[in-house]
Amino acid sequence: KIKALIDEKFLIYDKKTNEERPLSYRDIVLLTPTKKNNLVILEIFKDFQIPVILNDTESYFQRTEVSIILSLLKVIDNPRQDIPLAAVLRSPIVGLDEKQLALIRIQQKNGDFYEVVQHFIKICEASGIEQTAEIKDAYSKLALFMVRLHEWRNTARRSSLVTLIWTIYNDTHFLDYVGGMVAGKQRTANLHALYERAKKYEETNYKGLFQFIRFIEKIQQRDKDLAEPTSFSDDEDAVRVMTIHASKGLEFPVVFLMDLSKRFNLSDTQSKYIFSETFGLGTDYFDVQQRVQYPSLARQALAIEKKKKLLAEEMRKLYVALTRAEQKLFLVGSYKSEEKLWADWQVADGTSGKLLPDYLRLQASSMMKWLGMCLYRHEDAENDHFHKEYRGELTHYPVHFSIQTFREEDLLSYIPVAMEEINESQWKDEIEHMASANVETHEHSLAEEMKLAVALMEAQYPHEAATTTTSYQSVSEIKRLFEDPDESHMLKLDLSDTKRVSRYVEPEFPRPRFMQETVMPNSAEIGTATHFVMQSVDLEKEITAAYVAQLLLELVGDGLLEQAVAEKLDAEQIAKFFETELGQEIQANADRVRREMPFSLLIPASRIFTEIPEDSTDNLLIHGIIDGFIEYDDHIVLYDFKTDFVGDRAPVLPENIVDKYRGQMNLYKKGLETIRQKPVSAAYIALLSNHTNVII
Question: Is residue 189 located within the same domain as residue 70?
Answer without folding.
Answer: yes
